[in-house]
Write a structure and sequence with these properties.
Blueprint lengths: L66 E6 L5 H14 L7 E5 L5 H7 L3 H10 L4 E4 L8 E7 L5 H14 E9 L1 H9 L3
């Protein structure tokens, strides 16, 4: 008798190259993997039968951090790549309030627009946690979210080197970094 999975697996086909790349990018952005999901809530699947026995934890297993993905993008294309990653995350079932987008250079246009109404209104949206939130990578007030997307869209090496570990600390399950792989890897190997 075949086993029935708790949740059906959806396999997306990978689209071919787009006809018109975004300005500043010469190749299409690779699509990120949606990343680990929280445990499903009991529902109809729980009535199908007993769940498999949980795996025994290994002794002295180190605490796992978030899954990290790197999406290659130029500094000019990093915001577009981050926006595409957010769209994919939302399309695959992530709730908007689970996503935080950070920028290392110029602010995301949404953040700049919302800040025009004042800091109190801007941070109240962050605290409500009911929508995707956009902030600067060095914003001390930005809290943790299950998914953090970083657009390495500028900023000097010191700012990026400080922003990447801060973003890792804010990511609960998944950290997606959109930027120049050589620059990001060089900063990571230099001690980030």
């Amino acid at each position: 008798m075949p086993l029935i999975p708790e949740e059906p697996q959806i396999h997306e086909s990978v689209p071919g190259p787009s006809a018109v790349p975004a300005p500043g990018r010469t190749t299409p952005t690779p699509r990120p993997v949606p990343g680990p999901r929280p445990a499903p809530r009991p529902g109809p699947a729980a009535r199908r039968g007993p769940a498999p026995a949980p795996a025994r934890p290994a002794a002295a297993e180190p605490a796992a951090g978030p899954q990290v993905q790197l999406i290659p993008a130029s500094a000019q294309g990093a915001l577009d790549a981050a926006d595409e990653a957010v769209d994919l995350l939302l399309d695959t079932g992530r709730a908007p309030g689970e996503i935080l987008v950070l920028t290392t250079g110029d602010p995301h246009p949404w953040a700049a627009h919302e800040l025009s109404f004042g800091e109190a209104s801007y941070w109240a949206q962050h605290d409500a946690r009911d929508d995707v939130f956009y902030a600067a990578a060095d914003a001390d007030r930005a809290g943790t979210r299950p998914v953090v997307v970083v657009a390495v869209n500028g900023g000097d090496d010191d700012a990026v080197a400080r922003g990447l570990p801060a973003a890792m600390g804010r990511a609960g399950a998944l950290l997606i970094v959109c930027g120049d792989p050589q620059r990001v890897n060089a900063l990571i190997s230099a001690g980030v």
